[in-house]
Amino acid sequence: MKDKIHILKSPLFITTAEDEACHGILPKGTALYYKKTFSEGFDRFCIYVNVEGPSLQLENTPKDNFEDPLTAYPRSDKSNYLNTIKEILLSFGISRSDLVEIISNYPV
């Protein structure tokens, strides 16, 4: 299945191997480039990210080619969405007054 992609039709929540807290969201429309299917029951995809701002310091790839992938999955429970949104807002330092302004400008 080389050269296969999937375009997200709904967001996926991102976690790390260390914990299951949401660390971000892959938005609807993100292109996932298929790499491999694992017998453990998951598929590996690659995404491309443009990083703007200061240049990131690059390192040589370790000889053992260590991979530490993130995990992305859909959430269907409304309370999980609310907790995730709260985590994201807190991580950006958005105040209650900022949130009121965002919501008041949200199209109905």
Walk me through what this model shows.
The protein is globular. The chain is 22% helix and 24% strand. Strands 1-4-5 form a three-stranded antiparallel beta sheet, with no helix packed on it. Strands 3-2-6 form a three-stranded antiparallel beta sheet, with no helix packed on it. The longest helix has 15 residues, at 78-92. It folds into two domains: 1-52 and 69-74, no CATH class; 76-108, no CATH class. With 108 residues, it is of the alpha+beta class.
Notable features of this structure?
2 domains, 3-stranded antiparallel β-sheet, 108 residues, alpha+beta, 24% strand, 2 helices, globular
- What structural class do helix, strand and pairing data support? alpha+beta
Radius of gyration: 17 Å
Helix content: 10-25%
Low confidence ranges: none
What is the succession of H and E elements?
Answer: EEEEEEHH
Shape designation:
globular
End-to-end gap = 42 Å
Strand content bin: 15-25%
Read across the widest sheet, the strand sequence of neighbours is 1-4-5
How do you describe this structure in short?
This protein has helices at 78-92, 96-104; strands at 5-7, 12-15, 24-26, 31-38, 42-46, 71-73. It is α+β, with helices and mostly antiparallel strands and 108 residues long. The protein folds into 2 domains: 1-52 and 69-74, no CATH class; 76-108, no CATH class.
Produce the secondary structure layout.
Elements: E1 5-7, E2 12-15, E3 24-26, E4 31-38, E5 42-46, E6 71-73, H1 78-92, H2 96-104
Antiparallel strand pairs: 1-4, 2-3, 2-6, 4-5
